[in-house]
Amino acid sequence: MIILRNMAAVEYPDYRLLLIGEYARDLSATHRYDIHRGRENARASIDGSLPLGVDTADHQLYCIEPADADADLGQRPVAGYLWVGRKGDTAFIYDFYILPAWRRRGLGRSALAQLDRLLRGQGVTELGLRVAAGNPGAQVLYDACGFRVTGVNMAKPL
């Protein structure tokens, strides 16, 4: 079980740095350019999408905490993050990250189930995401949680 709570503004800078690093590696691997260019593109994309951090309209940032941790709410360790955007009755997961020390414990599946309940309660009828081709573990998780392939992104270097 997990607790999905709103990210506090004070937590955003650390999350942003983690996200930039992870996204830069994904961009570099996917588009076959160096990590420096990947980092520049990741930073520009994230800062453009979340100009006000946790206060950006139509976006919600969550911290994932293990519910069974021996700590009071808000004092539990952060096991991962979720970034969800909303547009009308649809939502999109921009980022879903479980920290390596917390993986393979069912927290990802639990977080997605809790997010489903939360979004349904808000009138959302469809939830989408993008998963990197080189992340088969995530693809298995998303498939098990009811996501289906709706298209395939493709690119080639010129």
TrEMBL record:
- Per its UniProt record, what SUPFAM superfamilies does this chain match? Acyl-CoA N-acyltransferases (Nat)
Q: Name one GO molecular function term.
A: acyltransferase activity, transferring groups other than amino-acyl groups
Q: Which Pfam families match?
A: Acetyltransf_1
Annotated ranges, domain N-acetyltransferase = 2-158
Listed Gene3D superfamilies? 3.40.630.30
Q: Which InterPro entries match?
A: Acyl_CoA_acyltransferase, GNAT_dom, YpeA/RimI_acetyltransf
Keywords, A to Z, come to: Acyltransferase, Transferase
Protein name, as recorded: GNAT family N-acetyltransferase
Species name for this entry?
Acerihabitans arboris
According to the entry, what is the taxonomic lineage of the organism? Bacteria, Pseudomonadati, Pseudomonadota, Gammaproteobacteria, Enterobacterales
